[in-house]
Specification:
2 copies of one chain form a homodimer.
Chain A: H1 10-17, H2 20-30, E1 34-35, H3 36-41, H4 47-59, E2 63-68, E3 71-76, H5 79-115
Antiparallel strand pairs in A: 1-3, 2-3
Chain A binds a DNA duplex through helix 3 and helix 4.
DNA sequence: ATAATGCGTAACCGTACAGTTACGCGACTC
DNA sequence: GAGTCGCGTAACTGTACGGTTACGCATTAT
């Protein structure tokens, strides 16, 4: 449970990531920082629309903004994505399990087949509930 | 670009994950499949509200539903989370980079300081743009 | 000083959606 | 068959938000 200087609300993060345009902005920003205008230029929506998206991304700390003359340059901040990664972590074993489920199943069947001489199956654990 | 039998729209997935209640439902379902009623019982909102959340999760293929008598049992399907994991992958190197950014920066400054005898700074490389 | 640029914000739509209550329907119980 | 349980859905409300246009405010250019 390492506590970095700032604790990012994964709530805001997920919320910010929910919009495809915002994810695209992040993808764009991976190539390098850009002023708001150029970001807006990359999308088929109006500049104010992007401005609002950027505000949301700012609130989620997914981007950082600093002025440069009359430009506002936006920079990616991948830090909060770490929280998403951690959250995902709880499910990773889970889908690895599923990855091997067929294999495991087959092996289990195989093992059963081998040792299946006089052992009565107790009841088949009826799902995972 | 592996194409599994089903292609999950990461759009629907992110959308589904955007709500805290829905993420909580998934977290709950990690412990095992449950009928809708029990899921609803675990939250301070009405049963129909949960029912709608479950519908969204179903659409995103994050849960699977099957009837069992007069119950509808919901089961976690972690598959679509893989897509999220892949998406995140593009940022993983990035935040590893940032881990070392301070170190790198300090080292760079140090190097500059050493060689900085008669070199006029052209204009300060102006961010990372 | 004046004009033009770059951006954010306000004001205003339309739509999505979280939540509620009322209702309906299939599935077990007696 | 009548009652009840489990659960989805319809109908409705409040709110968030994506998009637009109009506007305002700095900063640079003339």
């Amino acid at each position: 449970m390492r506590n970095r200087s700032v604790t990012y609300s994964s709530e805001a993060t997920f919320q910010a990531l929910a919009d495809p345009t915002r994810r695209a902005v992040l993808d764009l920003l991976r190539r390098g920082s850009q002023p708001a205008g150029e970001i807006a230029g990359a999308f088929p929506v109006s500049r104010p629309a992007i401005s609002k998206h950027l505000r949301l991304l700012r609130r989620a700390h997914l981007v950082r903004e600093h002025r440069e003359g009359r430009n506002r340059v936006y920079q990616l901040n991948p830090e909060p994505l770490r929280a998403v990664d951690s959250w995902l972590d709880q499910y990773r074993n889970f889908w690895k399990m599923n990855l091997n489920s067929l294999k495991t199943f087959v092996e289990a069947e195989h093992a059963k087949e081998i040792s299946q001489h006089h052992i009565a199956k107790p009841k088949t654990s009826k799902g995972d509930h």
